[in-house]
Specification:
This protein has about 60 residues and is an alpha+beta fold. The chain is built from 2 helices and 3 strands. About 15% of the residues are buried.
């Protein structure tokens, strides 16, 4: 059984004044505070949320 890939996400731009759907994506990914990294599974659902708010994130493979 292969280990699933993981992604390290860090929010680097403020969520203040963003669209509610973009704020919801960030919350759904577990992002709460700026510059606090979060590890998430690399799934199509998570990739879709990451693509939607990619302008606010830095993404690294773990």
């Amino acid at each position: 059984m292969a280990a699933s890939k993981q992604l390290k996400l860090t929010i680097v731009r403020s969520m203040i004044g963003r669209l509610k759907s973009h704020q919801s994506c960030a919350r759904g990914l577990g992002l709460r505070k700026m510059h606090k990294p979060v590890i998430v599974e690399d799934t199509p659902e998570n990739r879709g949320m990451i693509n939607k708010i990619s302008y606010m994130l830095t993404v690294e493979e773990v």
